[in-house]
Prior knowledge:
Layout lengths: L1 H46 L7 H18 L3 E2 L5 E8 L2 H4 L12 E8 L6 H8 L3 E6 L3 H16 L1 H6 E8 L20 H9 L18 H10 L5 E4 L4 E3 L3 H10 L7 E5 L1 E4 L9 H9 L3 E3 L14 H6 L10 E5 L8 E5 L17 H9 L3 E5 L4 E4 L11 H22 L8
Parallel strand pairs: 3-4, 3-6, 4-5, 8-13, 9-14
Antiparallel strand pairs: 1-2, 2-5, 6-12, 7-14, 8-12, 9-10, 11-13
Amino acid sequence: MHLSKKCSAFKVVLSALLIVALLQLIYLSFLSKFHGKQQRYRYSELFGSSGGKKNGHQEKNTRKERLRYSLSTGGIFDNSGQYRVYKNLIKSDFTTNQKPGSDPSANVLALATHTTINNLHHLESLLERWQNPLSVAIFAHGQDVKFATALVYALSFFCPQIQALVDFHLVCLSGEMASFPEQDREHFAGLEDCPSVFTRLETHRDKYKNYAISGNVSYPNNLLRNVARGGTESSYILVIDMDMMPSADLHQQFLAMIMSRDPGSEEVFVLPAFEIRHARKMPASKAELVQLYQVGEVRPFYEELCPRCQAPTNYSQWVNSHVRGTSTLEVAYTLTWMDPWEPFYIGPRTVPLYDENFKQYGFNRISQACELHVAGYRFSVLSSAFVVHRGFKIQGEFHAKKDEENKHNRVLFRSFKEGLKTKYPSSTRRC
Length: 431
């Protein structure tokens, strides 16, 4: 009798467990179907036709058709014929809506940057800090051409701030072509919103070590800088690398400063460049940066690799210079360029382009700074604005061919300097 009761109780418990397991299976099946429908909806929303039922869908269809058109042109070749350039692959609402007679103050300063797909995840924090027009030139090679096209489209689709402010341009080898990512469903699996796109981009971070791109392909940094610069109509442009961050409120502070000054000829505005330990939060203000600088958590950019390359900035003078107000930006002091200074600066859109013969590591920015000097530009250091690179630059982090590339570009730089004598025959300045 006692045994019989135990058996009955066991059967009840077992039946209950089976029912629970069955309900869980039904629930999981429902979730799977629901998720599948959601993914199909998201995919059809990305690429399907909405029939123009809603304004939001019409907007997104317009964006899709603009991308189709950009890709259908086949891009254009750069001057060397080695690279294919898709300028304005995706335009921001800001650029699209610019019309003659628009408020001129809205288009005074833009940020231009360049990257491969493995550093594009930095765009999220960069745009959060900048919050103004931004032009991004992306270099992709091989399978990354498809991936870059797909993910850039997804960013422009799911991220409202990117839709509003970011223009994307794509550069690949001349023998490669980008195509509309309609058939590449694997790139879009799991993409439901803006954070999910950046999570996908995170999976590509650190795929390459600096310039060590697969297939022994050269990273055309100066071509990319020119493409990003040419992708904006702003009067002034700040060109930085994707893994750098400008000081907070720079856009509005610079706008206030430039509007109160007489239009100057041949002048660029230098932002002292620093690098910060990876674990540290990016400083927003000069006060925060100086505090970190004084305890060694922030140091001059390239201090370990090439201290001479930034030394003319005169960090000691800048750190100790008085700032009249937290929101006031002004020129702290003006410098004459000297070799081998390669400052980051805000310059008018009329400054000389970067020389596109320089690729990979070495002399790509100093060559342009040298030309500015020969062309007669003044280098005015801003009182409280700055840029910070994520992480300390150290010798061991560079790719194997760094020294070989630097040697090659050094020879190219000598030739470049000779060419400036012909280009600026009346200039008495030399590099």
